[in-house]
Amino acid sequence: MEATITRALKDVVRVRNLSHYFGAGELRKKILDNVSFEIAPGEIVILMGPSGSGKTTFLTLIGALRTAMEGEINVLGKNLVGVDEKTLVETRKNIGYIFQQHNLLRFLTAEQNVSMGLELHNIDPSETRRQARQFLEEVGLAGHFEKYPDQLSGGQKQRVAIARALAPSPLLVLADEPTAALDKKTGRDVVDLMFNLARKKGSSIILVTHDNRILDIADRIVYMEDGRIVENSQRNAG
Ligand SMILES: Nc1ncnc2c1ncn2[C@@H]1O[C@H](COP(=O)(O)OP(=O)(O)OP(=O)(O)O)[C@@H](O)[C@H]1O
Ligand SMILES: [Mg+2]
To answer: From the DSSP assignment, how many helices (H) and strands (E) are in the chain?
Structure first.
């Protein structure tokens, strides 16, 4: 099974000398400059850095949401440089995404939003429903299954987004400022929840944040400045 093979990977993500540009001709600007990075299975990494330093761009390249131009990116054992859309789409199925704005579908209930991620994996409908509910319970949303995003608070919406991203047990979770729209306490709770679920599932996480109050829960913190990784500090547990 593919999942078994990829779980045995040494690095879930391996990036070497990655550069990326936006714009063309005289307006062409280097956004990522020779970045190298890796993340091990189950590792939780926080990515920080000033606004405009390239964090989101980096995450979208790793997440197969845009095509990489220069260097090497290997995600879940697949090379992503110069590949076709089909390969990118296949890779995305094994990644959970959580964004600053929850990105839930407004016309679907909490349960249906979580089910969507599971349906990609072709589980039968009653099993999908059972798992979606189980996950909503795990993020503290028992009793909110039938609610639409507009009927939920910001923190609750982000919990649904976490359930949706993690329910399929992705090997990799990419989170771009998931707490930016939340107050301090709610933000902390949401991140704790995400990290605990990820640890249970053995998922690796790359989380972008400006919030230095949540740094203690990461295995490692990486700083980006002007498109370069300037510091890559290993934290010791405890
Ligand atoms: N689609 C695009 N086209 C052109 N330039 C872009 C595009 N997306 C981002 N940029 C530019 O690339 C640089 C890096 O942007 P990016 O969104 O990766 O930064 P960031 O570190 O995520 O910032 P923030 O902390 O504000 O979210 C910025 O100068 C931005 O203006
Ligand atoms: Mg960003």
So the answer is: 7, 10
